[in-house]
Amino acid sequence: MSEKTNNTAVPKRNMVYIISIAITFALVFWGLVSPQSFGAFAKILNGGLTSYYGWGYMLTMNLFVIFCIAVALSRFGNVRLGPDDSRPEYSNMSWFAMLFSAGMGVGLVFYGAAEPLFHFGSLPFGAEPGSVQAARDAIQISFFHWGLHPWAGYAVIAMPLAYYQFRHNAPGLISSIFIPLVGEEKVRGTFGKTVDILAIFATLAGITTSLGLGTLQLNSGLNAIFGIPKSLVIQIAIIVILAVLYTGSAALGIEKGIKVVADFNLWVCLLLMLALFLVGPTLPIVNSLMTGIGDYLSGLIKESFTLAPYGGKYESFLSGWTLYYWAWWISWAPFVGSFVARISRGRTVKEFVSGVLIVPALGSFTWFAIFGTSALHLELVQKINVSVAVLKDVSVGIFEMYSHYPLGQIMSVVMLVLIITFFVTSANSGTFVLAMLSTHGDLNPPKSKMLVWGILMAALAVVLLLTGGLQNLQTVSLAAAMPFSLIMVCACASFWKALKKEDKKER
């Protein structure tokens, strides 16, 4: 970067950073000084967003899936995210490992056994809770929540961002996506700053939610294995330790820190899946994977557009699960999208969509087929009631399931390690991206910025746990996702316009 570019970038970099820090400090301060009013506001906000904008989350996520498939199958599928002679920086294995670790991470571990068990005991689809049909429906809805939709949300940010960064040398900022729509002058002005601040807030919300979930599950695992009590003191201690780990690994950079931990995650994931596949109900797992994919594909359109116009039980299910997930994925999109863009230089649009949409979705299906089926098999075949514990506390699901299988204690300990490293990979890439977004898109941001954001994420997670636990964690994702979902729709339009312009110029 030239000296002139640095000089012109300073005001924008400082304003985005200062405003973002001020908003975050205000939230943390409010939560610490008046936790009751903070919690009450979060509850009202949560109800309002799910009631009045639930359709928006559903519609935009569907648009993202359609857009990704359309652009990959179009004449633009062979466009490279970089110069025409560029090639991928990372091997497919390392690329997938970083995609999977950053994009799903601790969420898969948290919900792998717990979500199917929860739906099995409390389904809104008409099947008798605890029945064979309920088990099948539970796997189907878990596949739906972790299938194409979340990855499409990441892709619609990552694709245009990689395109502008590496093909047109634009800064690594979310606002760069809007150059074809509003022009470079507005992107450098107030409009661009507003977009980047919203991206930072959404990233902060998504990572903080994951930090809270990881903390709750680690506390549950330590309680199940070592008898360490569940308490706020223990949870705050866990957050502090995790903050040191993810901030430190982010400071090491992608090659020495993030990539190494992501590769480790992939191998531990494969080891745990293989171990449970062998000691668990092997044949039912295979059958469940095949049946689940079939049910997922056959019900995809219906479930993608189903809301609750007449209220009832399905309305509470939507707000607690589907809409929460869609908001969570949207709030993760700026940081996962920025990180995925950073590691995807040189890939074609078609290759990118295949790698970001299809492969990780199949990985999620396999994970849920193994862990979800193993948990449901205990209920249906072995008549061991494990869903009751999960209905009381979702975070205990995977450890409750492990306790009834051979090598369960060993797998539980390994799972604790995986929870830590999965979260560290998500959070260190998030910390890296926050620092990047607040330093005018610097692809190698300063460590001082990473330290500041690492501390603030931990502080916000502590405040959310103190003022309302999981409910407030969900609310902060919903709040950040609403405005950013509109930005993502505009990103799709802008990217398509840029591709058409380049194609016309070449023709």
CATH topology category name = Amino acid/polyamine transporter I
Question: Could you spell the SSE succession in H and E letters?
Answer: HHHHHHHHHHHHHHHHHHHH
- What is the count of distinct domains? 1
- Taken as a percent bin, the fraction of beta residues is under 5%
The poorly predicted ranges are 1-13
Please tally the helical runs, counting DSSP H or I stretches of 4 or more residues: 20
Membrane topology: Multi-pass membrane protein
Family: Belongs to the BCCT transporter (TC 2.A.15) family.
Main location: membrane
GO molecular function: transmembrane transporter activity
Which descriptors apply to this entry?
mainly alpha, single chain, 20 helices, 507 residues, globular, Amino acid/polyamine transporter I
Describe this protein's structure.
This protein has helices at 3-33, 35-73, 92-103, 106-111, 114-121, 132-145, 148-167, 179-182, 184-188, 190-226, 232-251, 253-279, 282-305, 313-342, 349-380, 387-392, 397-402, 408-437, 447-467, 470-506. Mean pLDDT is 83; it is low at 1-13. Helix 5 packs across helix 6. The longest helix has 39 residues, at 35-73. With 507 residues, it is mainly alpha-helical. The chain is globular. It is 81% helix and 0% strand. It has one domain: Up-down Bundle (Amino acid/polyamine transporter I), CATH 1.20.1740. One of its GO terms (cellular component) is plasma membrane.
